[in-house]
Amino acid sequence: MSSADMQQTDGPMLAADGTPLKKSLSRALRAQKIRALLLIAPLLLFIVITFIAPIADMLFRSVQNDIVSETLPRTVVELDRWEGGDAPDEQTFTALAKDLAVATELKTHTRLGSRLNYETTGVSSLFRKSGRKVDEVGEVYQDQFEDLNEAWEEPATWVGLMADPDWISGQANAEGAGSPFLISPVAQQALPETARMYSQFATVIQTEDADNPAQEKPWAIVYQALYEDLSGGADAAAFYDGDLVALITEAQGAVGGFETQPVREFFLDEIDEDWADPQIWGTIEAFSSPYTAGYFLSAIDFQLTPDGVSLRPDDERVYGTLFWRTFKMSMIIMVSCILLGYPISFLLSNLPLRTSNLLLILVLLPFWTSLLVRTSAWKALLQNEGVINDLLVWSGLISDAGRLALINNQTGTIIAMTHILLPFMILPLYSVMKTIPPYYVRAAKSLGASNWTAFWRVYFPQSVPGIGAGCILVFILAIGYYITPAIVGGTDGIFISNRIAYHISSSLNWGLAAALGTILLVVVLLLYYIYDRIVGIDNVSLG
Amino acid sequence: MLDTRSGQAFVEFDRVQKSYDGENLVVKDLNLSIPKGEFLTMLGPSGSGKTTCLMMLAGFETATYGEIRLDGQEINNIPPHKRGIGMVFQNYALFPHMTVAENLAFPLEVRKMGKSERDEKIKRALDMVQMGAFGGRRPAQLSGGQQQRIALARALVFEPELVLMDEPLGALDKQLRESLQFEITNLAHELGITVVYVTHDQTEALTMSDRVAVFDDGRIQQLAPPDELYEQPQNSFVAQFIGENNTLAGKVTQLSGDRCVVQLDGTGEEIDAMPVNVNNVGDQTLVSIRPERVEFNPELGPDAHTLDAEVLEFIYMGDVFRTRLRVAGRDDFIAKTRNRADQHRFQKGDKVKIGWLPQDCRALDH
């Protein structure tokens, strides 16, 4: 016995050079593994970029909801204090006015309106209407400031007050937008609201209009902010020096006597009384968090209201029915495929190879025709004046008045999809049946089993893996099918995927589409899991 | 002509023919009568029609013409599952989705047997093949030899009187095959069942059978017990198919009763032989001599013929020596001698005289 053999009795197995065998084995296999990885790398990269990343992004969209907090940052903060019941206070309305003023310039208020309209109808038009009038907020202060001192009309005054000195010096003769605006730290301390508002104004002017803020008079809402800062009582002038001290001191002395205009009243009276509706505010608050379960709730016919989660009213429930129908019809299609496909596969697997190959080509023939063409052909066959009804009437099986409704309903979808998905059942069945040797059935018969018993007890159990594979294929394809239900399904024969497509391309509610897609994906995975537990994935075979 | 109505015949083929394509006969005029309790082997090269005969008996093929009778009753139109014949297949054909016990229960279940009776029979059958501990296993967990034992037990568990075996040991290695051959014959005799056994392995046929039917070209070439088949082949096909055999071509020059003289084609030398199917002087014939019946430097009678031979090769095989010789112009003549202490070991190139007893040299058809 060599020394290496002796070591087997205690401790890990060692290779000839004394390193542990496991280690030296993994070293020996490393090059092989790296080569395997390199071989799949292009495909892996391709799939990650074009498939996995988009799907992840899509799934993320189903919970993503930062549009409210991004578009109405001030309002969302103020709404924290709101306790429902009535419309919120003046301060919240002021925040809303500032947010909306910026959003209107950026034109994001309509997007937000459409988003919130999914939850509460009417928000979209309310936001559009508000966007048109919100620039009037603060005009009353603008006039009074300008009356007080003409310097407030000058863009230069504002730049002097608000901009960082470095930015000003680099900006003197700039054409167009110039370098990105920098707010001065002094202004942020002296006039915080104004500084924030002006900085947003400057950025919008630069990015949206490509103009230089040094040559533009601020929006009225900036004067509103200035009024708020000055009437707040803090000694803003103390932060400045030179001419600006006098200007601010003068203004600070005058604001006490300014004519005021409460923003809340302006919104309720001048823009739309709907702003008094606590439901609008409830919706904004409910969706103010950057992540939401709202899309998922909608996807299962629930809704997120200010009072919590509740079932949608009867007439708004669609998705539960649609999911159930998709599931039920996929099952029916799957069972039809088994019933039609099993005998064919059985025949194919028992014929001589030449004949079965020929028949197999016939089975595959539909694949050579475009899916759209096949589905359209079903339209011609199934319609009221179509070939099938005409034949039935001609043969006297049905009367002319009693033509069967075979299309634009569930029947049409089931017929057309069974036809289209049938090869996906036949192929795995056939390839599994081909591997079942004929001597099993012979053995069963020699043991005394009748033809039926031999089939049912011996042949059928061995073909179950094929049925399993066919069922998974057909069911998963069916549950996500889109074109055929869209063409022959009418209104009550459509699937959940048609609704997803509608939200992707027509209503542009991608979040809801993503939530529906996610649910579909989870349901499929769940079924796959259940199937694995009951039948066993190892029992699925494609031959 | 066989007496197909004989009282003791259990299985009978009566002028049976079989064609698959309507042009060629795979089985040509088969007449065979098997008494109860006999172990009969159908031996032949592939394509000789032996498996077709077995399948006709089992009911998986129908005879194109003729009658097959089981226990006096015609079974041509009885479906296989009503024939009550046990069958063992080359590929075992154990149902992969059932355990061993379930496999054995299958023939009993389809016969609507009660559970307690069933369990008892399964246990007895498993013990019979020494597989009592394997009832709960799946066929895939068993070795080939174990699977074939289970297949055997399954074919016997419902106590058929006739069991068909289609090359049951063909997929096993040599040692296993030999021990199973022994077990199968013992079981068959103990149970008193009739066995029709198909194989292309002549050793298997000779060691196991009561009688062997040698098939070729759709016909039974010879039906005889193993010793008779080996020692007294009726034609040159059988002589060559069974065991090792030397053949020499020649012409009959003298013929008297059970002796004839054959002049060999190659050198014109003459040898003594026993006429089997030569009828006239001048007939062309193939004479057949078993290698172990060849004697070196024989001391036969004074008028006995001997042949000159030259040693081409001397092969040491342990229990025997195998000597390849050039005889009558052919260099594939084999002689076998036992490895005895006094046995001379030849050198390549040695010249010797060889001869044999006339009854060991059979003049057969050409």
Write a structural description:
- The complex is a heterodimer of chains A (543) and B (366).
- Chain A has helices spanning 3-6, 21-61, 66-71, 73-79, 90-106, 109-117, 123-133, 139-148, 155-162, 165-171, 185-190, 192-207, 220-231, 243-254, 263-271, 278-286, 294-299, 319-350, 353-364, 371-382, 387-394, 410-434, 439-446, 451-479, 483-488, 496-505, 510-534, and strands spanning 302-305, 308-311.
- With 543 residues, chain A is an all-alpha fold.
- Chain A folds into four domains: 3-61, no CATH class; 67-135 and 271-292, no CATH class; 139-257, no CATH class; 321-539, MetI-like (MetI-like fold), CATH 1.10.3720.
- In chain A, strands 1-2 form a two-stranded antiparallel ribbon.
- In chain A, helix 5 (90-106) packs across helix 15, helix 18 packs antiparallel against helix 19 and helix 20 crosses helix 22.
- The longest helix of chain A has 41 residues, at 21-61.
- The radius of gyration of chain A is 36 Å and the shape is elongated.
- Chain A starts with a helix and ends in a 9-residue tail after the last helix.
- Chain B is of the alpha+beta class.
- Chain B has two domains: 9-236, P-loop containing nucleotide triphosphate hydrolases (Rossmann fold, 3-Layer(aba) Sandwich), CATH 3.40.50.300; 244-364, Nucleic acid-binding proteins (OB fold (Dihydrolipoamide Acetyltransferase, E2P)).
- Chain B is built from eight helices and 20 strands.
- Chain B has helices at 50-58, 100-109, 115-128, 144-157, 174-191, 202-208, 226-231, 236-241, and strands spanning 9-19, 25-35, 39-43, 65-70, 73-74, 85-88, 162-166, 194-199, 211-216, 219-224, 246-256, 259-264, 270-275, 284-289, 295-296, 307-316, 320-327, 330-338, 351-355, 361-364.
- Chain B has a six-stranded mixed beta sheet with strand order 6-7-8-3-9-10, with helices on both faces.
- In chain B, a hairpin with a 2-residue loop joins strand 9 (211-216) and strand 10 (219-224).
- In chain B, helix 2 (100-109) packs across helix 3.
- Chain B is elongated and about 75 Å long.
- The two termini of chain B are 24 Å apart.
- Mean pLDDT of chain B is 89; it is low at 1-6.
- Chain A binds chain B through residues 437, 439-440, 442-451, 453-454, 457-458, 461-462, and chain B through 58-60, 79-82, 84-87, 89, 91, 93, 95-97, 106-107, 110-111, 154-155, 158, 164.
